[in-house]
Amino acid sequence: MRVKGETVRRNKRQGGYDWSFLWLAVAVVATGSMMLVASDSVPERIPSYVSWTPETIAAAYSGDDFRGMLLAKRCEHCHGAEGFSDRGSTPNLAGIDRLTIWKELEDFRSRKRTSRVMEPIAESLSSRDVADLVAYYARLPVFADLQDNRNFPQARPDPSHAGMASHLVSFGDGGRGIPPCQSCHGPVAYRPGVPSLANQNGEYVLSQLEAFAGGTRANDINMPMRTISSLLTEDERQALAEYYGAGLGLQPGSSSGAR
User: Fold this and answer.
1) Which run of H or E residues covers position 183?
2) The pTM is what?
3) 114 and 180 share a domain?
4) Tens of pLDDT along 114-172?
5) In this structure, are residues 71 and 129 in contact, taking their beta carbons and an 8 Å threshold?
6) Residue 32: predicted pLDDT
7) SS3 139
8) Gyration radius of the chain's alpha carbons
9) Are 104 and 113 in contact (CB under 8 A)?
10) Is the CB of residue 148 less than 8 Å from the CB of residue 79?
11) Nearest-angstrom CA–CA distance, 244 and 197
12) Same domain (yes/no): 81, 134
């Protein structure tokens, strides 16, 4: 009786081959193939079907604001007659640029952004309706109007929260990989193509930060908001919501915190 090692050495001296290595190679290749098949079967997660091309930008800017004003009568119950809601949980739309509202409505239409209220409304709109509505809301003034019943601005945050938010807005937190809020949203909380926070209700801001952090909202292309929101603490998200809800975003971030 020969042990395995002696058999291998004899086979090598006689010009044979150790077939165990071949079976190992086959097993490795087969396993790799199975892994490739498994990875290919995972559905691709697409945050939004909106692609910023010259055609889509032209579509967003093609609307008629007068026709949009007539269509917006159906939106006033929630978003207010002048684009300012009387409920803190509902977003203000007055003065937000066309690209921002257009994308959000398109995401609601494709269900890339979920809402039991907004999905059926957005689906009922034609492409022309969407363009007209965003033209109207983009032209609305943001200064106070005696006819509206706005919830904005809310009370100023306490000094500790104001200082915390101001630092995040102006400087972020490099140690945790958090960029300044103003790097995307602008030094006075406004930048075309990015959701404006200059006149936004704090309760709504908080709900969206929490939705991004928890992954229940996932229509941010390249995941900037999901990433940043998940890195923020609950207290920091609250502080930022209070900061923007009080209208402090209209000032340069570093000038509005506690001293």
Assistant:
1) helix 182-185
2) 0.81
3) no
4) 999 999 999 999 999 999 999 999 999 999 888 789 999 999 999 999 999 999 999 99
5) yes
6) 47
7) helix
8) 27
9) yes
10) no
11) 6
12) yes
